[in-house]
Amino acid sequence: MRLVFAGTPDAAVPALRVLAASPHDIAAVITRTDAPIGRKRVLTPSPVARTATELGLEVIKTDRLDAGATARIAELEPDLGVIVAYGGLVREPLLSTPAHGWINLHFSLLPRWRGAAPVQRAIMAGDEVTGASVFQLVPALDAGDVFAERRYPIPEDATAGDVLEALAGSGADLLRDVVDAIAAGTATATPQAGEPTPAPKLGDEDGRIRWDEPRTAVLARLRGVTPEPGAHTTIEGARVKVLAARPAEADVALEPGAITLHAREVLVGTASAPVALDRVQPAGKSAMAAADWWRGRRADAATRFDA
Q1: Residue 6 burial class via C-beta count within 10 angstroms: exposed 0-12, middle 13-18, buried 19 and up
Q2: pLDDT digits (tens, 9 = 90+) for 36-49
């Protein structure tokens, strides 16, 4: 079967590799244009673009699947479009251009967490299980019938980055199986059942730690926004990134946001039990052990994170 593949980030790379190794023909890979990366803002191809080039596949770079992109894709006469975290919407007439339309690998158990940040939102909400779904793309956001899904119990200390990496691997195999079934004419899809929940893209404010929340919520937020956009708080108006934290071993009574050094642990109060900070990154400095950061502060410095 002749495919076009659309994807951009690292999470889409396993799917591209699996399909490239299958009997199917990838006519072209669509990805977003080169983006400025790092402090020097060097224009850098997306992970999918780099992988497609490595595999010798044609690459179409576009930030919008507009009339021009639609015309280029139509010339390829694809049987099926496959999309994995491309970062843009597929609308008509492109939606109907491939003979079998488009399918999407999505990192949640639909209809829960429709949107751009399903893994992050699942962790932040305290979900114990998530998964991957392959569904038929329709005009409504992530609302099409589901061909297959795979459940994934979320490890207790896993970050969004950890879970996304795991789902990208298992989801790639799931996607290949669905493509094979569509090619064989044996694929069946089932309408989504249940109340949808939205998973909008995360912003910087989502990463701000609310110390007045219970510890479970504080840690869930931290894990859900790691690695992007990252968890942060402020002290005396200066931003501090929180790179790693865990439940405190000591049972110390602290007001939300209050900080203390106890038995070599930097503890911070929440609405319930305290958390222990492991690694932090103060503004303008490198990442460091939280205890080193705390001991290095001046004697009259604040002992509470800002509200």
Answers
A1: buried
A2: 887 778 889 999 99
